[in-house]
């Protein structure tokens, strides 16, 4: 029997002691990440509803051809590269050796199938139609596609950064079945769908074969907690690692907590009011005596008066507690396609009353404002404050707020004939492309599903001069000229008060010490942007 020397015995003891340490390190490196979301998803179908909570979740599972960084600059994703062959032809080279979650290969066929499905999902409250319509997709080979447009389309790569690619075998999968995880092939993204409980949670597990590298989290659990105080309490209690949309009243306190990290950046999201432009008689507007009256919102002076009656600095100062910026257009200054001429409308109650009288409503009228509950920071407080401002103008204003899923469905197609139901609504919009054409197309372009325009134009605003300038901008290849044309379209829509912007939010996240969140302008809370500090 061989006897170990003292030196050998010491080495053996060290090896035995080292073994459990390595095991513990392995367990620690693969930990669960628990995130508190501020709004509920309406679906896990990546093409059903162009809504921030849906989109951020889809980005984990289904990747777009073109990615966006934290400031929404374009970067390669499932497409390695792209180039314009001529003014009306784009070519995209697809990434090779990429598989879906079931191991099947990603090819051009999956892209073509996605482009057929994305604009045509039944009952979509806000579709991705605008990003697909007017484009003819063809396969060159398994890893090359070409896109033909009838007019010059410089924003094709930007458009294709807004939604994810699904496997061709799931092209006919229903929204309900996506929610149930019946698209078993999954996506190509870094995480797989493991569990979805509507209104409560989504659980993701890592895609071990992800082409982009291994994620540090063994499981990611997103909990939908629409109550801001409850979200903060869960973070402080250690039940969550990260929360989004930190309440404005808690930002300073959380920044001063040594056990927490706070990340923030200006948002591309504008909070605004949409109003009924299309009905002669609007369902939630009456005369002071309760009688039916002609829709006053179709009168420019009435719209100007309403905008002038809103105290934007007051909202930012008192309701948003300085965690916002007054808005005069659809994106903050400095974003591509914004106007240098537009400023937030100054609060002027006397001027607003004068305009209202000139419009033929010296005594005002009655109106009901609708909005979602806990979808946007302080949304209920904002709508109640604006209702008081309108009441001081002489418009007797009532408020009704609804759960998000119910609100958005009714706001989009709850009226007779599947038209928007409400007269005046508070909503928000984040520019998914990071420049103004996305907002202008969705919110102010004349509603036309065939052209992919006005998908989220819940007021059915329509202005031929605006439409013409927007189409001109979308066909302009030269970046500086397109920037100028988009700014002109913005001027037209805002001066005509197609909608009323109030403010831009600041995006703020809080996380426990040891976990760092990458702040994003698009508000997406991505596990891929959360790392151990």
TrEMBL record:
Compartment(s) of residence: Periplasm
Pfam families with a match to the protein in the record: SBP_bac_5
Keyword match Transport: yes
Keywords on record: Signal, Transport
Superkingdom, natural source: Bacteria
Gene3D superfamilies assigned: Dipeptide-binding Protein, Domain 1, Dipeptide-binding Protein, Domain 3, Periplasmic binding protein-like II
Residue ranges of every copy of the Solute-binding protein family domain listed in the record: 74-446
CDD domains, alphabetized: PBP2_NikA_DppA_OppA_like_2 (cd08498)
Family membership noted in the UniProt record: Belongs to the bacterial solute-binding protein 5 family.
Protein name, entry field: ABC transporter substrate-binding protein
